[in-house]
């Protein structure tokens, strides 16, 4: 069973063209890809087993992707993150490209939900970004 390092994983953003071209967002740190889980639909009724509740799976919440960037205001893709957060509710296509042997890709639509800045005295200038995923992701697995 193979194991892979996550170093060099890329977070990329699409340009919205057809065909869409994806570009690596530079200077990204740890990428945390969260799944919001499934909602629960309570179907407990008087015929349910005593002392037990019954559930059906509901709709899935695609969750969020969080990541820090070593912020460089001169970089166009860093400016785009700020503009997408402050200038509207732009939904873009993103993808996470894993650097396994054949590059597993997870593609998803998202908008910039929040940006917070870290300006610690002894550290690099950083933005912490949260992308709110919308809809189901598409996975491309190596064959």
Walk me through the structure:
The protein is mainly beta and 143 residues long. The chain has one domain: Irregular (Factor Xa Inhibitor), CATH 4.10.410. The chain has one helix spanning 76-86, and strands at residues 10-14, 22-24, 32-33, 38-42, 55-60, 64-70, 92-97, 105-118, 126-140. The strands form two sheets. The protein has a seven-stranded antiparallel beta sheet. The protein has a two-stranded antiparallel sheet with strand order 4-5. It is globular. The model has no long low-confidence stretch (mean pLDDT 93).
Low-confidence stretches are: none
Fraction of residues in helices? under 10%
The appropriate CATH architecture is: Irregular
DSSP strand tally: 9
Q: What spatial order of strands do you see in the largest sheet? A: 2-1-7-8-9-6-3
Q: Write down the overall mean pLDDT.
A: 93
Any idea of the CATH class? Few Secondary Structures
């Amino acid at each position: 069973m193979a194991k892979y390092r996550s170093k060099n994983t890329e977070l990329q953003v699409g340009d919205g063209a057809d065909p869409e071209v994806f570009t690596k967002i530079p200077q990204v740190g740890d990428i945390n890809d969260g799944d919001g889980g499934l909602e629960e639909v309570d179907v407990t009724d008087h015929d349910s087993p005593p002392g037990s509740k019954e559930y059906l799976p509901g709709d899935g919440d695609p969750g969020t992707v969080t990541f820090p960037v070593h912020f460089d205001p001169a970089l166009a893709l860093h400016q785009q993150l700020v503009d997408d957060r402050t200038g509207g509710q732009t939904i873009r296509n993103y993808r996470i490209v894993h650097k396994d042997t054949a590059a597993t890709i997870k593609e998803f639509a998202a908008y910039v939900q929040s940006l917070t800045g870290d300006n610690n005295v002894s550290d690099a200038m950083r933005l912490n970004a949260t992308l709110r995923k919308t809809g189901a992701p598409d996975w491309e697995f190596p064959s």
